[in-house]
């Protein structure tokens, strides 16, 4: 199973991606987690991206595309994967298309989660308190939501026109949302 999970910050992508990974026995690959691990480890990549992530801006495409390409070439991706937080703009969709074409591994579906603005803001505030992410400042949050609306949300239409979109309500109990996603995927 090869999946993307998409939706605005705070909608629960990471939580649902982890549950889907467990359900299908595939790795959940989060570009945000990869960047955060590199920032924490003060790697060369981490030092390059911190200026973008802290401001809530997208990391340049060349860097992001190349970490995804490397990750998808690893052995644990043989049975599939779920990508969380990538692609985030039209150029990344093109880059992913090219990678999958080269690997001969087409995408199965794109899970799109959505929730009202107020629900998202409340969840982001809660996460900021619990996890203390350095990009959960009011300015960075506003920037990330605006970038999502401008650059990422339009990608849902791209995947819809390809017949790959599975839209799921992101409001409710975690387990119930997970069940809805799995049922919708298995019904395809
Ligand atoms: P996330 O955890 O997905 O919210 O990602 C945290 C931050 O990492 C984002 O605000 C961006 O700065 C960066 N990032 C994650 N994924 C991408 C991506 N696909 N393209 C560009 N930047 C990204």
How would you describe what is shown here?
The chain is of the alpha/beta class and 188 residues long. The chain has one domain: 3-Layer(aba) Sandwich (Rossmann fold), CATH 3.40.50. Helix content is 59%, strand content 12%. It has 9 helices and 5 strands, in the order βαβαααβαβαααβα. The protein has a 5-stranded parallel β-sheet with strand order 2-3-1-4-5, with helices on both faces. α1 crosses α9. The radius of gyration is 16 Å and the shape is globular. The model has no long low-confidence stretch (mean pLDDT 95).
Radius of gyration: 16 Å
- The total strand number stands at 5
Distance between the termini: 12 Å
Largest sheet: number of strands, sense, barrel closure: 5 strands, parallel
List ligands, each type once: adenosine monophosphate
Mean pLDDT: 95
Uncertain regions spanning at least 5 consecutive residues: none
- Helix content percent band: 55-70%
The helix-and-strand class reads alpha/beta
Share of residues in strands: 5-15%
What's the CATH architecture name? Answer: 3-Layer(aba) Sandwich
Please give a handful of descriptors for the protein shown:
single chain, alpha/beta, 5-stranded parallel β-sheet, 5 strands, 59% helix, globular, binds adenosine monophosphate
């Amino acid at each position: 199973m090869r999946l993307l999970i998409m939706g605005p910050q705070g909608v629960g992508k990471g939580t649902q991606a982890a549950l889907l990974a467990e359900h299908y026995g595939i790795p959940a690959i989060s570009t945000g987690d990869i960047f955060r691990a590199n920032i924490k480890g003060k790697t060369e990549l981490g030092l390059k991206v911190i200026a973008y992530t802290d401001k809530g801006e997208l990391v340049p495409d060349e860097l992001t595309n190349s970490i995804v390409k490397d990750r998808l070439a690893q052995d644990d991706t043989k049975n599939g994967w779920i990508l969380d937080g990538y692609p985030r703009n039209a150029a990344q969709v093109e880059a992913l298309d090219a990678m999958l074409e080269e690997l001969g591994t087409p995408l199965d579906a794109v899970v799109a989660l959505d929730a009202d603005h107020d629900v998202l803001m409340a969840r982001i505030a809660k996460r900021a308190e619990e996890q203390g992410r350095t990009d959960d400042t009011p300015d960075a949050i506003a920037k990330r939501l605006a970038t999502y609306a401008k650059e990422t949300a339009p990608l849902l239409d791209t995947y819809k026109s390809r017949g790959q979109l599975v839209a799921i309500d992101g409001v409710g109990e975690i387990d119930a949302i997970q069940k809805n996603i799995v049922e919708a995927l298995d019904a395809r």
